[in-house]
Amino acid sequence: MIAPLRSRHRRLTLLLAVTAPVVFVSALASRSPVPPMEGNELADLQNRLTADAIPVTTYVLPEHLEFARSWWPADSIRTTGSGTGMGMGMVEWRWDGRFVGLRLTLSTSAPDLLVYFVPPAGTGDEPRGGAELLADDAVLLGSFDGVEAQFFELPALPVMDGSRAVLYSLAHGRIVSSWSFGGMATVESRGD
Amino acid sequence: MGHSYRAVGWNRQKRVYDLALIAGIVLYLATFVGVGFTLHPGATAETMLIRALGTGAFLLLHLVLAIGPLCRVDSRFLPLLYNRRHLGVATFVLGLLHGGFALVQFHALGDLNPLVSVFVSNPRVDSVAQFPFQPLGVIALVILFLMAATSHDFWLANLTAPVWKSLHMLVYLAYLLLVGHVSLGVLQAETSPVLAGAVGIGMAGLLALHLLAGASEVAVDRGRDAATGAAGSAAGHSSLGLSSLREEDSAFVDVCAVSEIDEKRARLVSVAGDRVAVFRYDGKFSAVSNACQHQNGPLGEGCVIDGLITCPWHGYQYRPLDGASPEPFTEKVPTFRVQIRSGRVLIDPTPLPAGTPVEPALIGEGASDG
Cα distance from A134 to chain B (closest Cα, Å)? Predict the structure, then answer.
């Protein structure tokens, strides 16, 4: 009758009772260290991140803090640029050869922002895919979820003059900010 | 009972159940989004929806998994079990919406097919903190789809209850995958302890409930088996195993005293790992397998209604005399021979083929047997 079924159910339940807590605890234990939320360190960091900015709700993910602490205020940044677009205020881009960083200095009203790396166009002056459209060979770096500073690792492609990083609004279906690698502070912006 | 195909056999209880379910889901999503935007005004609507749907599905899965052990611990939860499959389908739908939004948000505009991107965009399987958690959610969603798609009685009847139940035990794997999906995903970036605490408490509560119910079931089995052995002694046999009793051609084993079974109710006895339900009704005793043919529900926890044994889970009914459902239904369960000796109820633990008629034992008979 159903004795084997009950026995299997019992074994599965016991297995779950062992494995689920192990997965849960292991995942929590391996989290990146979270700086204390109280104290001046985080406040100072956030002040630096939002310096010269109109105050907005500051939300910094823990994995960004390590980058931000050592990277954003540093002097080793090769180039920076900024632009405005689509009611989202100032977008500041930074690049150190491996990571590209974005910082919003005004709150955004554009939802679902995605960051892409666009390889250089072969010929012609027109940006690949048109001024506001995404090129077919654009590489998704990640989503920009509204934090003041966020960093994206660049793909293992040679970054050459003409390569661009773009901020793409999924909701609007168009590029809202674009920045070229190679030149100093070469900025393009797409306003409404 | 299903003798023909019907998409859903709606009745008042199912309508009330589903209305309450939909209202609860809408209320939860609205509350989550409202509170979420209050606490995180910078978040986008899509992000908030993804989180609301994901937490809603995970919460609902906890409820689905808790209903079974809750019913074992306290029969007052049985009404929740009646339409549990609709809860499961709702869980899948919420999970599908969560996955769909997440796929569009994070993978739709990359170089790869989004479904491929989910599996290959993050290759860091060697890191716990950076582990690709999204594929875990996709696999869990596939399992939930499989369960939702086969939840109808059509599949139950065609696959047979044991196969169907085995298939649906995959829900435990889905739950484990979702614990990993949440723990290795959102909890890695969450600085507030609230979400981690809620997940931990939910998981601990659910597992404790299952272990508690399982322990009580083991205790019941051991108690019944012990009673069976003791009954063998009372009936003139030593506490030998059942096989020994059969060898002596005196297979009947004791269940309990006649007075211990309430009218229209049953007493369970465990024989060789399986359970038999011995019912008392209208001065008679009949025994059938405890497993309902529908979903292997516990017939012995049901009662006799209109002269028919009625499963407490979904109301499937069987005649006590032959274990067969009344016309036009075709379900049948194995039956067992019953005797009354010296005011005690005994059964032959050898099951007869499903639907085999057996003369019920009468309370008055065997009163003078020793």
Answer: 9
- Asked if CATH classification 1.25.40 holds for the domain at A40-189, the reply, yes or no, is no
Mean pLDDT, residues B333-353 = 90
Of A9-23, A106-120, A165-179, B81-95, give the lowest mean pLDDT range. Answer: A106-120
* Beta strands at B308-310 and A90-95: parallel, antiparallel or unpaired: unpaired
Same domain, B161 and B306: no
CATH number at residue B292: 2.102.10.10
The answer to whether residue B131 sits within a structural domain is yes
Is residue B227, in this structure, part of any structural domain at all?
A: no
Q: Which of 91-150 (A) contact B at CB < 8 A?
A: 107-108, 111-112, 114, 116, 134, 137-140, 143, 145-146
Residue A25 backbone phi and psi in degrees, to 5 = -65, -40
B344: closest CA of chain A, how far (Å): 26
Residues forming beta bridges with residue A153, ordered by sequence position: A99
Q: Where are the domains of chain A?
A: 40-189
Examine the predicted complex and report whether its ipTM is higher than 0.85. Answer: no
Token digits for B44? 């986008």
Range of the domain at B155: 12-189
Same domain? B263 vs B346: yes
Give me the DSSP letters along B8-57: ----HHHHHHHHHHHHHHHHHHHHHHHHHHHH-TTS-HHHHHHHHHHHHH
